[in-house]
Specification:
The chain is of the alpha/beta class. About 45% of the residues lie in helices and about 10% in strands. It is built from 16 helices and 12 strands. The strands form 3 sheets. An 8-stranded parallel beta sheet has the order 4-11-10-9-8-7-6-5. It has a two-stranded antiparallel ribbon with strand order 1-12. It has a two-stranded antiparallel ribbon with strand order 2-3. The radius of gyration is 20 Å and the shape is globular. It starts with 6 loop residues before the first helix and ends in an 11-residue tail after the last strand. The model has no long low-confidence stretch (mean pLDDT about 95). It binds glyoxylic acid.
């Protein structure tokens, strides 16, 4: 068993164990990958302020996201095709999140269905919604999430159409993988993944297959998104969905102050400052750069979370110190899942927890709820020198 000390270790194992098309799916940004890269690079520009001779005993990272207790302010983000990174992936990730005490968010584009995840977990999870042209299907999907006792609806606002990730097209991404000669050659080197995958019946989009009629091909994510996702999604529809759901709503994909104000106006319980992990609009600013202006505009009206670029506990600490009440990790947990299944997700969470805890202590703080900007060294003009 290799010694895992950081998220990079899990990423290396993930790459080794998982078919190329799924590793590439997780790892890609859109077009040139500029926003994808800057999401992580910009975190590194912010430095931490070392303090000494401060009592470091009895530390805690426990806090709340949308009023729900969390052992640390980190939720597992909705990630499409998670059940292709590892057999039964969504169930394994949800179980790890439950063991750890952080929220798990199930993607609409998951392999394991809402019902399947509910059946294999004991605590409520969050459900992420993509709105489809078929409004009746969306209504049924929301009802299914309610029946499964999901405790928040995360509505994604930045993916009515899919950003182009070159590798997905080149690899012919689909679930299950279509057996072309190059896919077969690659799968032959991933036998442990293949044996587990042969042992499960969950190999298609579980929330879709069997629940929609008249669709041409659910297997190809790109084609299916273009055909089914609702390009007419607007704030009025967001309000209608919120009403239909009737519970806590988190609006994900906010990267602009004006959109943040709209999200606060429609009464979101939280927003996620996000550029979809650099997978949608290449050339958009990183989430961490946009966090401050958005907090200044709506931080007193709505809870603000952040995703895109978090690969360590220090990244979480920086976002929280800036004012985010919570963060989401996508790739960081997917690496763990692809590397070692449920235990790998636990490992990813443990790594992040430890990095956050030790960094917080060395910054002279004992309680994550007391962490504020005082611990950060932010370069001048970090958020503010862009002209609209
Ligand atoms: C879907 O959420 C994707 O980014 O592929």
């Amino acid at each position: 068993m290799p010694v895992i000390t950081c998220i990079e270790d899990l990423k290396r194992l993930h790459k080794k164990r998982t078919p190329r098309m799924f590793y590439d799916y997780a790892e890609s940004g859109s077009w040139t990958g500029q926003t994808f890269r800057e999401n992580t690079e910009d975190f590194q520009q912010i430095r931490l302020r070392q303090r000494v001779a401060v009592d470091m005993s009895d530390r805690t990272l426990a806090s709340e996201m949308i009023g729900q207790p969390v052992t640390m302010p980190v939720a597992l983000a909705p990630v499409g095709l998670t059940g292709m990174q590892c057999a039964d992936g969504e169930i394994k990730a949800a179980r790890a999140a439950e063991r750890f005490g952080v929220p798990f968010t199930l993607s609409t584009m998951s392999i394991c269905s809402i019902e399947d995840v509910a059946e294999h977990t004991t605590k409520p999870f969050w459900f992420q919604l993509y709105t489809m042209r078929d409004e009746d299907y969306v209504r049924r999907l929301i009802q299914r999430a309610k029946d499964a006792k999901c405790s928040a609806l995360v509505i994604t606002l930045d993916l009515q159409i899919l950003g182009q990730r070159h590798k997905d097209l080149k690899n012919g991404l689909s679930a299950p993988p279509k057996l072309t000669p190059s896919t077969i050659a690659n799968l032959a080197t991933k036998w442990a993944w293949g044996i587990e995958m042969l042992g499960t019946k969950r190999r298609q989009f579980g929330n879709i297959v069997g629940h929609v009629t008249n669709v041409s091909d659910t297997a190809e994510l790109g084609a299916w998104t273009a055909e089914q996702f609702d390009p007419r999604l607007d704030w009025k529809k967001v309000e209608q969905i919120k009403e239909l759901w009737g519970g806590p709503v988190i609006l994900k994909g906010i990267l602009d102050v004006e959109d943040a104000k709209m999200a606060a106006k429609v009464g979101a319980d939280a927003i996620v400052v996000s550029n979809h992990g650099g997978r949608q609009l290449d050339g958009a600013l990183s989430s961490i750069r946009m966090l401050d202006p958005i907090l200044q505009a709506v931080g007193d009206q709505v809870e603000v979370h952040l995703d895109s670029g978090i690969r360590s506990g220090q990244d979480v600490l920086k976002a929280v110190a800036m004012g985010a009440k919570g963060t989401f990790i996508g790739r960081a947990f997917v690496y763990g899942l692809g590397a070692m299944g449920e235990e790998g997700v636990m490992k990813a969470l443990e790594v992040i927890q430890k990095e956050m805890d030790v960094s917080m202590a060395l910054c002279g703080k004992r309680d994550i709820k007391d962490v504020d900007r005082d611990i950060l060294l932010i370069p001048e003009g970090f958020s503010g020198s862009w002209q609209a």
